[in-house]
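Example 9 (inverse folding). The structure is encoded as follows.
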């Protein structure tokens, strides 16, 4: 399989190359030339497979001969061996035709583990072949940092350094990052905001001449194609359990950067019978406004109880728009340059086409808390605030439709105890595994928001 850029300036890339690249050189995102499609007979053959086996089958449709079967199989096996639930992604029933897909049984208790556990091992595999070492650099306001550290701490060819704003992440989030073991793991706490962290990271990527020769920075952010691929798997796994391909299902997805729900869209394009994909947003609702009213325009950032969805512009949305515009890079660029800052709208027929696949709803913090309390009362199930935004949207968008809807539960409620108590419920206990990790000493270095200081530390770290 080969990959091309959404902006039309770059094509013929291999999986191995795409894995190590963030943005394409022309500023676009990589997508496959052509998606694999599975017919009903092939889908039926996937039913009942253990999760890791299904993950292997799907991943091997996207990788290439840099990943021989046995290597890919053992990478995936190792990645998921550390999950605390034997089914990895258990599907439980909430109400009539309403299901919860629990994606929080990985080592950092969020769905990002499904992708980042595998990504760390894929990088390692490719870098061994190339005889190279890289330094992963990223900024986090919370969740991604710990999942990335946890995914890379075993990698022999990778050092990883994550910046977070000093004193501005929750205690659980900080400890998850700073107690991650591993000699190749570094945490820097920046005296500044999350934006300052991002600015520093961007500047370091822009000029890497300070690094020792042969070393390179790599990003593992949500536009990384391999992450998307590993997220396609649980859509198949869940739908097959509910009777696909005979039975169609809908999904409700708490959405930030549009990576998770874009994986659902890929599953649909690959032949999985998905009726609707419900985009669930918090008050940062640009996607909801675009889908429901054809208004694509940014609004000031709000800090909400579901911080991993506090995002102004969803980077992976570009990948979907590329398909919506029939892969016309010029039309896509036109739309994107007319710009979310000034406000843009889709051509009416394209907007209607989007409505055939996506529905959407947005929820404020009060609605999030009300849903946490409601689902607890009705079913004795405790939702984290992100998952609650998803369930709320599912209930709003579903109407009287008979199609079962699967709500993605993206994080464990214990990670967001503040929202649970705001909903009037008792704060849940941290799972044992995390309590044990939190007894380890915290390791982090406080730095100023100073590029030269950062460069000096990275340089030391990379030698
Ligand atoms: C990252 C994250 C999301 C948003 O996922 P995207 O792929 O960015 O849309 C939702 N919930 C939780 C808990 C997350 O960590």
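The amino acid assigned to each position is listed next.
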């Amino acid at each position: 399989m080969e990959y091309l850029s959404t902006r039309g300036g770059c094509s013929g890339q291999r999986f191995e190359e795409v894995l190590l690249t963030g943005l394409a050189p022309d500023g676009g995102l990589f997508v496959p030339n052509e998606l694999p499609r599975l017919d009903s007979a092939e889908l039926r053959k996937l039913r009942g497979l253990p999760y890791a086996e299904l993950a292997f089958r799907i991943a091997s449709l996207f990788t290439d001969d840099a990943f021989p079967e046995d290597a890919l199989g053992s990478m995936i096996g190792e990645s998921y061996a550390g999950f605390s639930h034997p089914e990895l992604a258990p599907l439980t029933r909430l109400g009539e035709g309403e299901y919860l897909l629990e994606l929080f049984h990985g080592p950092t208790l969020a769905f990002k583990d499904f992708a980042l556990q595998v990504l760390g091992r894929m990088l390692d595999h490719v870098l061994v072949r190339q005889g190279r070492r890289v330094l992963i650099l990223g900024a986090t306001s919370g969740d991604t940092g710990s999942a990335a550290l946890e995914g890379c701490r075993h990698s022999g060819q990778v050092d990883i350094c994550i910046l977070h704003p000093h004193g501005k992440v929750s205690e659980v989030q900080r400890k998850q990052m700073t107690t991650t073991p591993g000699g190749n793991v570094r945490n820097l706490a920046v005296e500044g905001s999350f934006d300052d962290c991002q600015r520093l990271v961007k500047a370091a990527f822009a000029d890497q001449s300070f690094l020792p020769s042969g070393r390179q920075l790599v990003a593992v952010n949500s536009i990384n194609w391999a992450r998307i691929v590993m997220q396609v798997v649980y859509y198949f796994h869940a739908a097959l359990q509910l009777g696909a391909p005979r039975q169609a299902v809908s999904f409700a997805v708490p959405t930030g950067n549009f990576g998770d729900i874009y994986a659902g869209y890929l599953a649909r394009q690959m032949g999985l019978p998905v009726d609707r994909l419900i985009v669930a947003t918090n008050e940062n609702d640009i996607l909801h406004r675009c889908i429901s009213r054809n208004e694509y325009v940014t609004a000031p950032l709000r800090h909400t109880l579901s911080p991993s969805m506090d995002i102004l512009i969803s980077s992976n949305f570009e990948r979907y728009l590329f398909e919506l515009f029939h892969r016309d890079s010029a039309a896509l660029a036109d739309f994107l340059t007319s710009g979310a800052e000034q406000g843009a709208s889709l051509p009416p027929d394209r907007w209607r086409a989007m409505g055939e696949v996506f529905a959407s709803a947005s929820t404020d913090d009060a609605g999030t808390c009300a849903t946490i309390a409601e689902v607890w009362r009705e079913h004795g199930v405790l939702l984290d605030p992100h998952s609650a935004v998803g369930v709320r949207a599912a209930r709003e968008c579903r109407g009287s439709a008979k199609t079962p809807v699967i709500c993605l539960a993206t994080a464990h409620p214990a990670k967001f105890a503040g929202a649970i108590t705001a909903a009037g419920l008792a704060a849940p206990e941290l799972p044992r595994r995390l309590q044990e990790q939190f007894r380890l000493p915290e390791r982090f270095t406080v730095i100023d928001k100073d590029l030269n200081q950062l460069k000096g530390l990275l340089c030391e770290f990379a030698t």
